[in-house]
Amino acid sequence: MTENSEKIDRLNDLTTFISTKTGVKGLVDAEITEVPSMFHVPSSILSNNRPSDISGLNLTVPIIDLGDRNTSSRNVVISKIKDAAENWGFFQVINHDVPLTVLEEIKESVRRFHEQDPVVKNQYLPTDNNKRFVYNNDFDLYHSSPLNWRDSFTCYIAPDPPNPEEIPLACRSAVIEYTKHVMELGAVLFQLLSEALGLDSETLKRIDCLKGLFMLCHYYPPCPQPDLTLGISKHTDNSFLTLLLQDQIGGLQVLHEDYWVDVPPVPGALVVNIGDFMQASPVDAFF
């Protein structure tokens, strides 16, 4: 098969996939037994993404207890955040004041949205109407190669919050409640990061690092051939800060010192990722 014919076949498969408007969940509901080729990831990439034998290296993404930030241990917390940001770009936070019930409900609401009838979900497919809430299968289906095995929705929360009725009923209350707590936690983290930089605690907030909030929720249906594809390809986040909530299944990895390191889910924890904008900002003294 020539390269041109492969491109034509991929385009035909992609057009068929898009026309169904049922996403990856639709493939699973159709009880497919083989992953379509447009989702196949080259074996060289898959092998590179498998965790190396790092048992003797003691590589573990730092876990930081924010419960100590209002005590005499605050400087210790700041020191740990500085070290994690410098050396990892990632850390997990516990005792962050986001209620466990809120975390569980947002995870459940994401499943609830994606497991609705496609007719309901398709009201939120991308259009030219600049919707605040958008349901999609991949950000750029015609140019992403290979496709990721996931469905997603996005919601722009700040600085111009959506009207509640713009958010689907299946996840409306959970999105509103979760993002309220996330903004509060974000303010705390930017204070601590400012102090870790040796600056006034409000510095990062003053330069609008906290101004925007973009919510992205992925749904990974069971895959019949998980060794052939990925839920998310290797990437960095174009943000100041990303707060990531994992479910109990896991699968998240971060690249550290040329090793792929697993980030096992910690009950109630949130993963903090130092984003591209933070690293490129004028106050990137330790990144």
TrEMBL record:
Residue span, Fe2OG dioxygenase domain: 211-287
Keyword Oxidoreductase attributed: yes
Keyword Metal-binding belongs to the record: yes
Keywords: Iron, Metal-binding, Oxidoreductase
Domain of life where this protein originates: Eukaryota
Cofactor(s) required for function per UniProt: Fe cation
Pfam families reported in the protein's UniProt record: 2OG-FeII_Oxy (PF03171), DIOX_N (PF14226)
GO molecular function: dioxygenase activity; metal ion binding
InterPro entries: DIOX_N (IPR026992), IPNS-like_FE2OG_OXY (IPR044861), IPNS-like_sf (IPR027443), Oxoglu/Fe-dep_dioxygenase_dom (IPR005123)
Family to which this protein belongs: Belongs to the iron/ascorbate-dependent oxidoreductase family.
Descriptive protein name: 2-oxoglutarate (2OG) and Fe(II)-dependent oxygenase superfamily protein
Protein source organism: Arabidopsis thaliana (Mouse-ear cress)
